[in-house]
Amino acid sequence: SAVISQKPSRDICQRGTSLTIQCQVDSQVTMMFWYRQQPGQSLTLIATANQGSEATYESGFVIDKFPISRPNLTFSTLTVSNMSPEDSSIYLCSVIPISGNTIYFGEGSWLTVV
Amino acid sequence: GNSVTQMEGPVTLSEEAFLTINCTYTATGYPSLFWYVQYPGEGLQLLLKATKADDKGSNKGFEATYRKETTSFHLEKGSVQVSDSAVYFCALKGQGGSEKLVFGKGMKLTVNP
C-alpha cells in the first residue's frame, strides 16, 4: 500500500494568484498522476508526473496553467497558475507503488477561488 | 478510446435495502476494473477491483463481477447501511501501456435510517 499526504488540504485563493499543491508518498512509487474533480463532477486526469522530465499532459491541460514537478520517486507538486473561479476543484494526487499495481489516491486538496 | 458509463443518481435508499449500481465500459482488450468510493468530505478510496474476466471483487459487503460478455462491472450490496452514504465511481485501467484511470461520472447514494 501507499500513504499519500497532500498539502494544503483546503485553501481559499484569490483570483489571479497561483497555488502549489504538494504530494508526498511514504514509499517509492513508479507512477504519479494529478487529477481534478470539479464540483459535482467525476475525476479528470490532468497529467502524469514523470521523474526528472516534463509531465505528460492530457488533452485540454497545458504546462503553463498546470506546471508539475517530480524531483524523485516519492514527491510531486502541481501548481495551479493564474487562478479563476473555474479552477475551484478538488485536486487529487494518485500513485502506483513499486511493490504493486493498485492505484492509490490522496485525500485531495480542496481549492476555492474567489 | 476507453470509456465508462455508470448509472447516475442521486439515489436514496432505506437502510437494509438492496443496492445495484450499473457500470458498463468500452475498451480494447482486457482492462482492469475498479469501484472507488468517496465519503462526504473525504478523498477517494478503492472499494474493490477485478483484473480479469469472471473475477469477483468484494469488500465491506459490496461485490462486483467482471463480465466480459456484457462489458459490465455492476456493484451490488445486499443490505445497505447509513454509513454507505457516499459517491461511488466506476473506473477502468486499459490493458498494457497506460496506467491512467478513466472514471465514470459517479453516483451519489444516500441511505436513510
Note down, in words, how this protein is organized:
- The complex is a heterodimer of chains A (114) and B (113).
- Chain A has 114 residues and is mainly beta.
- In chain A, strands 2, 4, 5, 6, 9, 10 and 11 form a seven-stranded mixed sheet that branches. Chain A has a four-stranded antiparallel sheet with strand order 1-3-8-7, with no helix packed on it.
- Chain A contains no helices and eleven strands.
- Helix content of chain A is 0%, strand content 50%.
- Chain A has strands at 4-7, 10-13, 19-25, 29-37, 43-49, 56-57, 68-69, 75-80, 89-97, 104-105, 109-113.
- The model of chain A has no long low-confidence stretch (mean pLDDT 93).
- Chain B has 113 residues and is an all-beta fold.
- Helices cover 0% and strands 50% of the residues of chain B.
- Chain B has strands at residues 3-6, 11-14, 19-21, 23-26, 32-38, 44-50, 56-59, 62-65, 75-77, 86-93, 101-103, 107-112.
- In chain B, the strands form three sheets. In chain B, strands 2, 5, 6, 10, 11 and 12 form a six-stranded mixed sheet that branches. A four-stranded antiparallel sheet of chain B has the order 3-9-8-7, with no helix packed on it. A two-stranded antiparallel sheet of chain B has the order 1-4.
- In chain B, β5 and β6 form a beta hairpin.
- The model of chain B has no long low-confidence stretch (mean pLDDT 92).
